[in-house]
Amino acid sequence: MANFLIDENQETLELELRKIETSDPVHADIYNALFQKLINNDAFLERLADKMIRQAMISHVLDSNNAGMVLGADVGPKITTITDALQRTLDVLDTNDAYLKQEMDATNRAVNALRNDKTITIPAFTQSAAPYTADIEVQHLKTTDAIELYAGMIKSDSELTVAQKAEKIKIRRKYLNMIDNAECNTDGILTVTSYSKKPATEFAVWLRGCSAEEK
Fold first, then answer.
1. Alpha carbon separation from 12 to 4, 104, 144 (Å, rounded)
2. Are 74 and 146 in contact (CB under 8 A)?
3. H-helix or E-strand containing 206?
4. What is the pTM of this model?
5. Binning pLDDT at 50, 70 and 90, where does residue 192 land?
6. pLDDT tens string 83-92
7. What's the half-sphere exposure (Cβ side, CA atoms, 13 Å) at 41?
8. CB atoms inside a 10 Å sphere around CB 168
9. HEC-encoded secondary structure of 47-74
10. CB atoms < 10 A from the CB of 13, how many?
């Protein structure tokens, strides 16, 4: 018995479906034409859903604290990794539940690593002369993480006035500009270095790109 051929090139949803009349003969050609349209519509919707999932995953990565939608040089390959993993997940959706869970977990971890922002405190440097350096313990941070620091509001700022919030952020940005390098050479440790000036005191910043906790 032959199966219906799927039209992989259908680009729109066919909304018109012939209505069966009482005068129609009971013949396979009548019903097959209707079934063919319905099946092609289902196939089109599946392709559309796959495309929307891909776009949503990319938007999910880009929209976190990135209103300008600016991509760092390291982000593009990470997005490709995520979408490739997602495609493999979709390919086995109906055939292998164990593999599906593994792929979805890997995809979620990759997305979380790109979006996982947490506040850290950069302590006052103890060195009397440059270079100034400090090691900060950061839970779940890995040497493979693509990290960056940025200044912004933190939870404790919520009680401040607008003017006080603005001044806080201004100071954090000033101090952050004195940090010349931030890297993770050992899992769980962020090393920050200043080769010239050092901040007058400790200050809070946001760390982006730290790995999320694996569940």
1. 19, 29, 43
2. yes
3. strand 203-208
4. 0.48
5. very high
6. 666 666 566 5
7. 11
8. 19
9. HHHHHHHHHHHHHHHHCCCCCCCCCCCC
10. 10
